[in-house]
Amino acid sequence: MPLARTRAVALVGVQGHLVEVEADLGQGVPSYTLVGLPDTSLSESRDRVRAAVLNSGQPWPSTRRITINLSPASLPKRGSSFDLAIAAAMLAAQGAVPAGVFDRAVLLGELGLDGRVRPVRGVLPAVAAAARAGVESVVVPATNAAEAGLVPGLRVTGVRTLRELVALARSEPVPEDAGDDAATEPSAAGVDADADPDDVAVSVAPDLRDVLGQATARFAMEVAAAGGHHVLMLGPPGAGKTMLAERLPGLLPPLDSDAALEVTAVHSVAGTLPPGTPLVTRPPFQAPHHNASVPAIVGGGSSQVRPGAASLAHRGVLFLDEAPEFAPAVLDALRQPLESGEITVSRLVAQVRFPARFQLVLAANPCPCGLAVGNGSDCRCTPMAKLRYLGRLSGPLLDRVDLSLEMLAATRAELREDSAYVEDTATVAARVIAARERMAARLAATPWRANAEVPGHVLRRHWPLPWGVVAAAEQELDRGGLTARGVDRVLRVAWTLSDLAGRDRPDSGDVQVALQFRGVRRWAA
Ligand SMILES: Nc1ncnc2c1ncn2[C@@H]1O[C@H](COP(=O)(O)OP(=O)(O)OP(=O)(O)O)[C@@H](O)[C@H]1O
Ligand SMILES: [Mg+2]
Fold it and tell me: Which among 313, 259, 326 is positioned nearest to 287, based on CA atoms?
C-alpha cells in the first residue's frame, strides 16, 4: 500500500491541533518532499527518520518518490515531535507493519539516528487535544508516558525505540534490547532522568518559620495568600523581602485538578517540568532577574514560541525582586496578563496564547541607597531621586497591588528570640485554606474565587458595609489620602482579614488594618 496515514499534534502555545500525517510512495525520480508548513527542525526530520528506520532494521524506499503531507497545511508546524508519526506512516506505506494499524492513533516523539524515541515537550497539552478530538490511542516516548497518562480516557503506549513500535504494531514480542539505555537519556525537556525522585520530594522547601521578626510582613503574606492579593514590599537590603516572597507559594492552597493540568501543560511546553513529577500540584514560583528581557517575561522566541516567567508563574507567584530595576518595557508588558490572565504573543504565522494568572509580589528598596526607612535619617538620596526611583513602579502595576508595606530590618533581639515561637508554613497555610473556603462559599454564585479578583463596585453593591465600618476609609478619601480605587483596595483587604478571622463581614478594625497596608503609597504615588 503506497499510501498510509496517521496522526500527530501541532502545538500553538498550549493549544494542540490534530494534524494528519500522510506518506505517499510514488513512482518517478527518487526524492523526499515534506509539505504542510514545516519549520527547519521539522524539515530536518527527513534525515532523522531515514537513519532511524534503517538502523531499526526496516527498509527505506530509496527508489521511490516520497511525499509526506502534514495537514491542515495552514497550521504552522514546529519541532521534532512529528518524527515518530512520519516514520510510522512511512513504515505503513511500505507494508512493514499491518495496514491501518496507525490510522486512528496519534504518535508523538523525536527519533534519534539509532531509532531511539526521545522525549518531547508539550506532551500533556498535545495528548489533551487528541483526547478532545476523540482519539482513543496515543503512542508517546516512554519517558513521557506518565505525563500523557494524566489525560483520562485514553490508551497510552510508551515506546523507547522505533523497533519496539514496529514489534507492537506487528503484535510481536518487544525486543529485549529495546532502548536499553534510553531511560537514562537526558530528555529534551531538560529533565535529568538520573535524578532520584525522592530527592525532589524531600527538597528543603523554604518555611515561614525561617523568617524572624517582621511580624507585619509575615501577616501580610498570610493575607496575600488568603485573598490572592498582589503585594509590594519596601525595605532596606537584608530585611528579608526575598525570604518572605519565596515563602508565599507554600502558604497557597494546592492546585485543584484543572489548575494542576493547566500549570503542567505550560511547564511541559517550556520543558521545565520538575523531574519525576508529571503533574505539578503546588503553585509555582518564578523570580526572574531584573535585567530579564520582555520575551523572557511574557514569552517569545524566534522559531518556537516559549512561555515566559509570567506564564510559568501561572496559578502561582511571580516575584519581581528589585522591581524598579526592571526595564519599563518589561513592567509595561505585565499589564496585559494582570488584566486578562493570559498573554498573547503575535508572530507572522500565528498568534500564540499562554495562560498567565499569577500573584504578583514586588520587592524594592525604598530609594536608590536603600536606607530611606523609618525616619530616613541615614538616607543620602535626594527627594527627587527617591521619587524617580519608586516612580518607575507607578501606574498599572501599583494600581493592582492591594497590599503594600514598609519593612525595617529585623533587630538583633528578634533574630535571637523569635525562633522559639514563630509559626511555621503549615500552621499559617491551614488558616489560609479556611479563609479561602469562606470566601469561595460567599463568591459561589460569581465568576470569582478570591477577594482580590472581585471588582470594587461589585463588592460595594453586593456586600455593602455599614457606614460605621467603612468610616475610616471614607474619611481618608475626604482628606485626599485615598482615591476611590484605593477605597476598593482597602475593602478587598478588609474582607480577606475578616475571612481569616472567621467573621461574616469586616468590622471597623479590619478596615483600619487594611488602611495600614497601603502605607507606602505616599512614597510611590
Ligand atoms: N527576618 C529575618 N529572619 C531571619 N533571617 C533574615 C531575616 N532577614 C534577613 N535575614 C537573613 O538575611 C538574608 C538576606 O535576606 P533577604 O535576601 O530576604 O533580604 P532582602 O530584603 O531581600 O534584601 P535585598 O534588598 O538586598 O534583596 C537571608 O538569607 C537571611 O539569612
Ligand atoms: Mg532580596
Answer: 313
Residue 143 Cβ inside 6 Å of ligand 1? The answer reads no
Residue of minimum CA distance from atom 13 in ligand 1: 238
Angle (CA) 367 371 375, round 5°: 105
Q: Is 329 helix (H, G, I), strand (E, B) or coil?
A: helix
The C-alpha atoms of residue 507 and residue 494 are separated, in whole angstroms, by: 8
Nine cell digits for residue 227: 485573598
Ligand 1 pocket, residue 88 CB under 6 Å: no
State the pLDDT at residue 227.
Answer: 95
Q: Which residues contact 138 (CB under 8 A, 6 or more apart)?
A: 105, 106, 107, 108, 127, 130, 148, 154, 155, 156, 157
Whether the pLDDT of residue 193 is over 70: the answer is: no
112-150 confidence digits (pLDDT tens) = 999 999 999 999 999 999 999 999 999 999 999 999 999
Amino acid identity, position 474? E
Strand partners, 69: 22, 35
Average pLDDT over residues 61-76: 89
Residues 6+ apart with CB under 8 A from 446: 454, 458
CB atoms < 10 A from the CB of 303, how many? 11
Q: At what angle do helices 215-227 and 425-442 cross, to 10 degrees?
A: 40
Sign for the pseudo-dihedral over CA of 468, 472, 478, 479: positive
Cβ of 407 less than 6 Å from ligand 1? no
> What angle in degrees, to the nearest 10, is found between the helix axes of 215-227 and 484-501?
90
- Name 285's Cβ contacts closer than 8 Å, sequence gap at least 6: 246, 248, 249, 313, 316, 317, 319
Instruction: Answer yes or no: are the C-beta atoms of 297 and 230 closer than 8 Å.
Output: no
From the list 23, 13, 11, the residue with the least C-alpha distance to 75 is: 11
Please give the order of strands across the beta sheet that includes 285-286: 285-286, 317-320, 359-364, 230-234, 401-406
Q: Is the CB of 214 under 6 A from ligand 1?
A: yes
pTM, rounded to two decimals: 0.85
Q: What is the DSSP string of 394-462?
A: TTHHHHTEEEEEE--PPPHHHHHHGGGTPPPHHHHHHHHHHHHHHHHHHTTTSS--SGGGS-HHHHHHH
Alpha-carbon span 222 to 233, nearest angstrom: 14
* Pairing, β 155-159 against β 230-234: unpaired
Closest ligand to the CA of 320: 2
For residue 410, the ligand 1 atom closest to its alpha carbon is 1
If we measure between CA atoms, which residue out of 99, 106, 2, 90 comes closest to residue 49? 90
3-state helix, strand, coil in the chain (%, to 5): 40, 15, 40
Cβ count near 361 (within 10 Å): 30
Q: How many residues does the chain have?
A: 525
Residue 322 alpha carbon to ligand 2 centre in Å: 7
pLDDT band at 519 (very low <50, low <70, confident <90, very high): low
Take atom 7 of ligand 1 and give the residue whose Cα is closest: 240
